[in-house]
Amino acid sequence: MKVEVAKTAGFCFGVDRAVSTVYRLLEEGKRTATLGPIIHNPQVTGDLAARGVVTVNDPAETPKGCTLVIRSHGVSQAVEEKIRALDIPCVDATCPFVKKIHQLAAAAGDQGKTFLLAGDRDHPEVQGILGHCKGENFTVKNNEELVNLLKNNPDLREKPLAFAAQTTFHAGEWEKCLETLKKLCTNAAVFATICNATARRQKEAKTLAQRCDRMIVVGGRDSSNTAKLRDICAQYCETYLIERADELPVFSAGLSVGITAGASTPASIIKEVLATMAEVTNNEQNFEEMLEESLKSFNTDERVHGVVVGISPTEVYVDVGRKQAGFIPANELSNDPSVKPEDVVKIGDEMDLLIMKTNDQEGTIMLSKRRVDAMKGWDEISQALENNEVLEGKVIEVVKGGVIVLYKAMRIFVPAS
Ligand code: SF4
Fold first, then answer.
1. What digits encode the pLDDT tens for the residues 255-291?
2. Global pTM?
3. Tens digit of pLDDT for each residue in 17-35?
């Protein structure tokens, strides 16, 4: 039997971030609640429940003293306001890709545009997005619904439209929708919001299914992205959706079997499945190599200009005008460890940033503000030295032999003498 594993199988950036947030809070000794299951994977949610994490369906149900985590799907503006009104300590783990759609939905209303969303209106991500709309909006689940919508509301064809998609929307169906818009609408702005992680998983699942005799999709049965992978694969070969290794079917020798996994499937479960398969095929080592490859990132030195679109206690989300979601980890915001992200920036701030790392697979860019600030600060300090000018900074650390003073993001040593 030949086994091939999709390079993109497993946790995406957004889910990894949300799940790590919950585990981090637990490590910090905080009682934690999540607004809805943090992930559509029963093994992970079971483990979290065993560690005391409570799942609530409404912010008002949050037990006293708990920190509430908003999952990667995000929530509506009304829910965000309710959490603030109830004064519940909250960590917002909404995926930056989803946050971007919230802003598009709100901006469409501000600009007098009709917001059109391709997605599943029962999905929490879609409900969250629609909860940020300020004007007329419609949701279509596929191209057929879009065609019918435009047929029944012919005025929409001339109106200014903003068209976006749920992050996990089927890439092929999206292309069909775009064809329809191009043919029938005269004034539609299109925003390609299908997440890279999803598109890559779907594309790879399709090519793998095309060349394999059987496909195994590992993931939670409640996960929409896992279900979509199963549907795509099932078009090309016999496909099995399994949640655990012990659900693996028995395959006859000589078959080629492809394995992929939804973005909410932890690596531990994929490895378990592979270990079981490897007993027959010795393929595990291959997978390890593939996993390594999929985590590769590239360093760049490029500077970009960005606008702050979201702030959390651990990072700041920035729109850098690219498809990728930009984020600045808290320790790359400022050289002063005592400041919090919200003390340094606010939503809408524009700034120059240095690209630290890009992850093309997940479509993210890690950025640094403090390094750009430090470069600017250095120029000013050099200038001040030449002009014999006095500068004022803030003492942030007492070290052996002196103090460290922060001036415009530069750490400056001032000897005790
Ligand atoms: Fe974010 Fe994409 Fe993962 Fe959804 S699939 S959580 S949009 S990274």
1. 899 999 988 888 888 888 887 777 655 544 455 554 4
2. 0.64
3. 899 899 999 999 999 999 9
User: Which residues, at least 6 apart from 175, have a Cβ–Cβ distance to it below 8 Å?
Assistant: none
Ligand 1 within 6 A of CB of 93: no
Residues composing the chain: 417
13 lines ligand 1 (CB under 6 A): yes
Q: Which of 289, 282, 343, 350 is CA-nearest to residue 311?
A: 343
Q: Can you read off the two tokens belonging to residue 309? A: 């679109």
Residue 364 CA: nearest ligand 1 atom is 8
Ligand 1 pocket, 167 CB below 6 A?
Answer: yes
Kindly tell me the sign of the dihedral angle through the C-alpha atoms of 342, 64, 15, 36.
negative
**How many CB atoms neighbour CB 1 within 10 A?**
15
Ligand 1, residues 95, 226, 229, 264: which to mutate, most atoms within 8 A of Cβ? 95
Q: Note the pLDDT tens digit of each residue in 173-214.
A: 999 999 999 999 999 999 988 887 878 888 899 999 999 999
Res. 217 pLDDT band, cuts 50 70 90: very high
Q: List active site positions.
A: 125
* Cα–ligand 1 centroid distance for 20 (angstroms): 14
Strands 315-319, 256-261: pairing kind: unpaired
CA gap 191, 97 in Å, rounded: 12
Residue-level pLDDT at 224: 82
166 CA distance to ligand 1 centroid (A)? 10
Confidence of residue 293 (pLDDT cuts 50, 70, 90): very low
Q: What is the atom index within ligand 1 of the atom nearest the CA of 225?
A: 5
Q: How far apart are CA 265 and CA 221, in angstroms?
A: 11
